[in-house]
Design brief:
The complex is a heterodimer of chains A (114) and B (114). With 114 residues, chain A is mostly beta strands. In chain A, 0% of the residues lie in helices and 56% in strands. Chain B is an all-beta fold and 114 residues long. Chain B is globular and about 45 Å long. The chains are: A mainly beta (114), B mainly beta (114). At the A-B interface, strand 10 of A face strand 5, strand 6, strand 10 and strand 11 of B.
Chain lengths: 114, 114
């Protein structure tokens, strides 16, 4: 596989469930990102990792917990979510954190919280 | 505040015609990159074209070109010879050299009429 992949593509969960989103990049990049995409709103950056180290947490509630075991994999652990957390969650990667680096996006996970 | 404004939530264009998507942004930085991303329905977001703020020459990628007016903080996207595959959400965005985050607009949904 090439590029950035995300699993699952769709997820429905109750507010008391615990689930995880997975992202994998096959581009040899060092930086990875989680974004939240809600209808009629700009993409919101959630977390940034560079060489497995978290460099940014954009005031995200603690019910979202990221994990980056290596530069190729990024997880987003979810627990006790709210219905307003329903959205498309996008993963992206870039060579490094330089502002000139293009970000490559995955297809996203469509999350529905009941 | 750093913002990107896409004033056209939706647009339609006849196949083979030309369409221009508008974008304005607000930043106090002088060193930044501007981007147009395309997100087809249920598919990955991909970079269409990018422009370095220091370059006066407008970027061009095949049928896609930009009109970059730095003083006006305007960055419009022109699509020539529109094709059915151009139907997508188009996001304007920028990133400065001082930040890890890309600032996105809310997007413009482009319909191509056969």
């Amino acid at each position: 596989e090439t590029g950035v992949t995300q699993t699952p593509r769709h997820l429905v969960m109750g507010m008391t469930n615990k689930k995880s989103l997975k992202c994998e990049q096959h581009l040899g990049h060092n930086a990875m990102y989680w974004y939240k995409q809600s209808a009629k709103k700009p993409l919101e950056l959630m977390f940034v990792y560079n060489f497995k180290e978290q460099t940014e947490n954009n005031s995200v509630p603690s019910r979202f917990s990221p994990e980056c075991p290596n530069s190729s994999h990024l997880f987003l652990h979810l627990h006790t979510l709210q219905p307003e957390d329903s959205a498309l969650y996008l993963c992206a990667s870039s060579q490094d954190l330089d502002y000139t680096d293009t970000q490559y996006f995955g297809p996203g996970t469509r999350l529905t919280v009941l | 505040a750093q913002t990107v404004t896409q004033s056209q939530p939706e647009m339609s264009v006849q196949e083979a015609e030309t369409v221009t998507l508008s974008c304005t942004y607000d930043t106090s930085e002088s060193d930044y990159y501007l981007f147009w991303y395309k997100q087809p329905p249920s598919r990955q977001m991909i970079l269409v074209i990018r422009q370095e703020a220091y370059k006066q020459q407008n970027a061009t990628e095949n049928r896609f070109s930009v009109n970059f007016q730095k003083a006006a903080k305007s960055f419009s996207l022109k699509i020539s010879d529109s094709q059915l595959g151009d139907a997508a959400m188009y996001f304007c965005a920028y990133r400065t050299n001082r930040d890890d985050k890309i600032i996105f607009g809310k997007g413009t949904r482009l319909h191509i009429l056969p």
